[in-house]
Specification:
By secondary structure, the chain is an alpha/beta fold. It contains 13 helices and 16 strands. It has a domain of about 240 residues: 3-Layer(aba) Sandwich (Rossmann fold), CATH 3.40.50. The strands form 4 sheets. The protein has a 10-stranded mixed sheet, with helices on both faces. Helix 2 links the parallel strand 2 and strand 3. The chain starts with 5 loop residues before the first strand and ends in a 6-residue tail after the last helix.
């Protein structure tokens, strides 16, 4: 469905935006517009890709007029731009609302105005029963996207709004794995927030597969969640110390707004949830005709679709864990050990 399409990625110079760009270039798209406010990252990305299919647009999703111009003649929008650092957002909540909430509404309004085919927002586990300001703003982003269909005039607009939700990408910038590696390489103690902490695990390639599959399957007004395994913080610590050496550990406590376990679907959402193509899908109860329109839901025997059968919630402490030996292989093959 991407062949010959014009695509815009908000926050396109970020790690996800760049990985998504690389994948989409292999899909024979017509054009990819990278929309971001960081000119230096745009220059670096332009030099890195050197593709005639890329267009680099400086702008901020807070600026509706600029965003509308950027989305002109676009078929698909991937909305990845956001303020994401939990402690910084706790200290600067007004700015997070301007970007994560108002900026997302600008994306929706521009997509409606320009009549794009699909608009996909990339969310986070922190939007589920949010404990911090970041999670609350991303929850509002999700709500805006899955209810945007209320504003679609079917005689004039066709936009399908789809929300995606997953946790941190395994080994991404600022995450626990590169931090632990850096501490060990400096022969420092590893700082553990809580020995009982667990996190969902998703690699960048898995995230990209999930994003593109959900984009193809989505009919609008739903939330897609990947099926994932998890890891414990102590297993990650053990894997890294077995690879690099052990200089001890220090328990520093959970940061303000941080959860002990990640939750991707809470207990109240499960009743509106389905299992589809190795993903979970949360339907919007305001648009139950989705279930009648989609043949794979109406005829689940054709595509192995079924209601979610989970007990309580879909949480990182309740799913299968990645063994230490497998974690060692993932870390060793990822290139993380050679980055410092």
């Amino acid at each position: 469905m991407f062949e010959g399409k014009k695509i815009l990625i908000t926050g396109g110079t970020g790690s996800l935006g760049q990985a998504l760009t690389k994948r989409l270039l292999n899909e024979d798209v017509d054009q990819i517009r990278i929309f971001s406010r960081n000119e230096f990252k745009q220059i670096d990305m332009e030099n890195k890709f050197r593709s005639s299919k890329l267009r680099f647009l400086i702008g901020d999703i807070r600026d509706y007029e600029r965003l509308e111009r950027a989305i002109e003649d676009i078929d698909i929008v991937f909305h990845t731009a956001a303020l994401k650092h939990v402690p910084k957002i706790e200290y600067n909540p007004f700015e997070a609302i301007k970007t994560n909430v108002n900026g997302s509404q600008n994306v929706i309004n521009a997509c409606l105005k320009e009549n794009v085919d699909r608009a996909i927002c990339v969310g986070t586990d922190k939007a589920v029963s949010p404990l911090n300001t970041y999670g609350a703003t991303k929850l509002l982003m999700e709500k805006l996207f899955v209810t945007a269909k209320n504003y679609v005039n079917t005689s004039k607009t066709k936009t399908k709004f789809i929300a995606l939700r997953y946790g941190n990408v395994f080994g991404s910038s600022g995450s626990v794995i590169p931090k632990f590696i850096e501490q060990v390489q400096r022969k420092e103690k590893i700082t553990i927030t809580d020995p009982n902490m667990t996190r969902f695990s998703i690699t960048m390639n898995e995230a990209l597969d999930f994003i593109l599959n959900a984009t193809k399957l989505g009919n609008g007004s739903e939330i897609f969640v990947p099926k994932l395994r998890s890891y414990s913080i102590l297993d990650v610590k053990q894997a890294i110390t077995e690879l690099l050496g052990d200089y001890g550990e220090e328990i520093v406590g959970i940061r303000p707004g941080e959860k002990l376990h990640e939750t991707l679907i809470n207990s109240d959402e499960i009743r509106d949830g389905w299992e589809i193509d190795n993903m979970y899908m949360i339907s919007n109860p305001l648009w139950q005709e989705w279930l009648l329109e989609k043949s794979d839901i109406k005829n689940p025997e054709n595509n192995n679709s079924k209601k979610i059968c989970l007990s309580g919630s879909y949480s990182s402490d309740k799913v299968d864990r990645i063994p230490v030996e497998e974690l060692k292989n993932i870390i060793g093959e990822s290139g993380f050990l050679n980055q410092n």
